[in-house]
Amino acid sequence: MAQARIGLIGLGVMGANLSLNIAEKGFPIAVYNRTGSVTDDYVASAGDLAQQLFPAKTLEDLVASLSTPRAIIIMVQAGAAVDSVIDSLTPLLDKGDMIIDAGNANFHDTRRREAELSKLGLNFIGMGVSGGEEGARHGPSIMVGGDKKSFEVIRDILEAISAKHHGTPCADHFGPDGAGHFVKTVHNGIEYADMQMIAEVYGVLRDGAGRSAADIGKLFETWDKGQLQSYLVEISGKVLQTIDEKSGQPIVDIIVDKAGQKGTGRWTAIEALSLGQSPSTIEAAVAARSWSSVKDTRIAGEALFAELEPEKGAAKISDDDLEKALLAAKIIAYDQGLNLLSAASDEYDWNLDLASCAEVWREGCIIRSTMLDEMASAVREGLPQGNLIFSPRFAQRLVEGSSALRRVVASAALQGLPVPAFAAALAYFDTMRQGRGTTDLVQGQRDFFGAHGFVRIDTGETDQHGPWASDIAHS
Length: 475
Ligand code: 6PG
Hints:
The chain is of the alpha/beta class. The protein contains 20 helices and ten strands. The chain has helices spanning 13-24, 36-44, 59-64, 80-89, 107-119, 132-138, 148-161, 179-208, 213-223, 231-241, 264-274, 280-292, 295-304, 319-348, 354-360, 371-381, 392-415, 420-432, 439-450, 468-474, and strands at residues 6-9, 29-32, 53-56, 71-74, 98-101, 123-130, 141-145, 164-165, 168-169, 171-175. 6-phosphogluconic acid (6PG) binds at residues 104, 130-132, 188, 191, 260-262, 264-265, 365-366.
């Protein structure tokens, strides 16, 4: 009986496209979907690629059609559905077989699943896949975590199906257990920040300057040819220039301004906080989506504060400033994302290669951009204090870009236009270039009310206290 090299469970949009990609690259693949008619329809529409497909009507059939050690990709909704598929599959597998979760899993789940399956002698790979439907079909960015030897077994398939950056596959192994899914989570966090910052530019131009959607879209189209070249700027330009067939209006004008979120941006912020990090641009982007969801409240607020006039003295924001501000804020968002990866790597002993993360994101994924190549080079050369914003490649750009960012944030604030991610980026940048901050007072306050102690700047002595303890006692 002919044997398939790999299997895939879950023929939704992502699974169907990923499996066609695998088949197209010459790897026979066994496919299974819980609803059998979905499998039939999928194979019927696969054209010539159907020759590479081994449709299975039961999990038993799927397992039987695979060469050993077996490798089976699960592409179902993240969460309970993944556990349920794993539970059905494990009794059918032999020691040394491998299950690959290619969904957007929470990396804590991936760590748990890896630990549980390794007790059964099975390998579990947590694999982040980015690039949406188109990426899955023609070349996604792939972030793998789990046993390195297992990765080597499927490496040729993953490299063949992935996007390429000048011939280099955008697929890599990042470390054990949840490392790959964590890298994907942070990718999504940066994706949130990038999307939000682009939306803030749109807001400043729409509400501050009264520019049309098409006009703003054309500006993005121009920026996409310069330093800001990126998939997200490109598609933003396209979205803004698209006309809704039904109403004849720009499509953006008929889309309700309530952003959905499946959870990865929120997870990024939650994990960051628990690791003592605060990626303010990502947090701001998550907040902006959450705030967007309370539209009724915002409508009520608009009516309630209608008499509030914009402050006088707001400078006109130039397109050039907006472009530079977006560039600076984007560099800051990546700096924060990379810092988070570094902190998680230390916490979980992943030994993450941050340059490889940036390299894998150069093509195929949603945050792909020309600038990522340079970021990867900056990381490879070594980041001063571990910070991208201090890298010689980017520090100069921030000198110029941060002034533009400051003018944009100041003018937007005076006009009453919310720019939470831009403001968060600026606050972070200003904090990181302030040798003496203001938490000396916070430490004083903590010591005053709780005797928490502080470090003396002059002698370096720790656990010092102010004289206020006796003040309290005598008052
Ligand atoms: C990708 C995307 C993808 C994500 C969607 C929706 O890398 O291809 O990040 O994984 O699921 O973009 O995410 P939200 O619903 O959270 O916006």
